[in-house]
Design goal:
Blueprint (H helix, E strand, L loop, with lengths): L4 H6 L5 H15 L5 E3 L2 E4 L4 H15 L6 E4 L16 H17 L22 E2 L2 H11 L8 H10 L1 E3 L13 E5 L5 H11 L4 E4 L6 H14 L6 E2 L15 E4 L13 E4 L6 H14 L6 E6 L1 H6 L1 H9 L3 E4 L14 E4 L2 H9 L4 E4 L2 H6 L4
Parallel strand pairs: 2-3, 2-4, 6-7, 6-9, 7-8, 10-11, 10-13, 11-12, 13-14
Antiparallel strand pairs: 1-5
The structure holds FE3-S4 cluster.
């Protein structure tokens, strides 16, 4: 990979910056990148203390670097203020706060959300280096920004250097759809994405009978990325780049999109994977208000601190009805959900991760179906 003289110099001094350059150069060489390109932002995942542990924390401390582009962070293992209410133990919380403190000193925005695009929206054609598969697929597909599916480490290295290797989805020709998916039935985007992600290779372009909302596209993308390698999709007539390519010859027709899961009786209903938008929060509130009584089960919902603060009155009302609204964390990256027997979710990404990574029993339903279970 070609490096400028300044880039070569960054490799030389053995500092944390050199280590980050080494990571980007190794990645560029593996994937045949010609050079590095500047990025506008980085998003780092995997920051829960449950992932990082003591060794990772020590490594971060020793790296001793500063970020030189806008850098946002994925959810941590705790709500920074209300971790005791989540049943998190003191030692875990202290370590998690240490991790966040290291990132703060590096210059990260303490966003702690997998929906960084609600805080700052990259523009069409912007090169970025984002980890977190659901955010990657949203940025590429819905916003038309350009990012590969970075790991936590490569996103961190890019945040320090301000560049990323020029390969994969940074190149227009690699964003071309491979298969047309014609959907001829009503569907839940989370279920459709779950099925298509595991059934096709390559980039899908969808043809729907209706327009999808931004929340639909968020759920579709998160699901596609959780069962497949998908990092971008297109929708005819809707996403920003669909017209730039020919419609592929390979096509499939979907006339049924259903999903059956265990039907255990949930002792926790967990919503907000990916983190809730303002509209989703208001939908939840509208539904709960119609019932007009307190929930009978634990209901935890997860969102960014930005949406939490902007919608503080709705949050307060939900809390009065017995619903816990947590920010900075989620049902998957926090150890707090592990003590429950059966969890109801409306996200197939949560379904995949809670069952496969955590070995928990999980029942899937749509948003209203999950909430109805709270009143039984
Ligand atoms: Fe976000 Fe956690 Fe789901 S990071 S996408 S809420 S698994």
């Amino acid at each position: 990979m070609y490096l400028t003289r300044d880039e070569e110099k960054l490799l030389e001094d053995g500092s944390g910056i050199s280590k980050c350059m080494e990571i980007l150069v190794a990645l560029g060489e593996i994937y045949g990148a010609e050079r590095l390109i500047p990025i506008k932002s980085a998003h780092i995942s995997g920051i829960s203390y449950q992932n990082i542990g003591d060794e990772g924390l020590e490594w971060l401390r020793c790296l001793d670097v500063k970020f030189c582009v806008k850098t946002t962070l994925n959810p941590s293992g705790i709500d920074l203020e209300r971790w005791r209410e989540m049943g998190i133990d003191e030692n875990f919380a202290r370590k998690q706060l240490d991790v966040i403190d290291v990132f703060r000193r590096m210059g990260a925005d303490i966003t702690l959300t997998c929906t960084p695009y609600y805080i700052y929206k990259p523009g069409l054609g912007d090169h970025i280096a984002w980890a977190e598969s659901s955010a990657v697929v949203y940025a590429n597909s819905v916003l038309g920004a350009r990012t590969n599916r970075e790991s936590s480490i490569s996103a961190l290295a890019s945040a320090v250097i301000g560049k990323t290797p020029f390969y994969g989805l940074h190149l227009k020709e690699n964003r071309c759809p491979d298969v047309l998916v014609r959907v001829e039935c009503e569907f839940d985007p989370a279920v459709l994405g779950y099925k298509i992600g595991s059934e096709i290779d390559g980039i899908p372009i969808f043809e729907f009978r209706r327009r999808l909302s931004h929340d639909d596209m968020k759920m579709l993308g998160a699901a596609l990325a959780s069962t497949g390698d998908v990092a971008i999709f297109h929708i005819i007539g809707q996403t920003p780049e669909w017209k730039d390519f020919e419609i592929p010859k390979e096509r499939i027709v979907i006339d049924r999109a259903e999903l059956e899961t265990d039907d255990c009786d949930p002792d926790l209903i967990a919503l907000g994977c990916p983190h809730l938008s303002r509209d989703e929060l208001i939908r939840i509130y509208g539904f709960v208000k119609r019932y007009g009584k307190r929930v009978k089960k634990d209901v935890w919902i997860f969102l960014s601190r930005k949406i939490y603060n902007e919608c503080s009155e709705v949050v307060e009302e939900l809390e009065k009805m017995g619903i816990r609204v947590f920010k900075d964390t989620c049902m998957v990256v926090s150890p707090a959900t592990e003590r429950f027997e059966c969890i109801a979710v409306n996200s197939t990404k949560a379904l995949v991760y809670l069952t496969k990574l955590k070995g928990l029993k999980v029942v899937f339903d749509d948003l209203e179906g999950c909430l109805k279970r709270a009143f039984i």
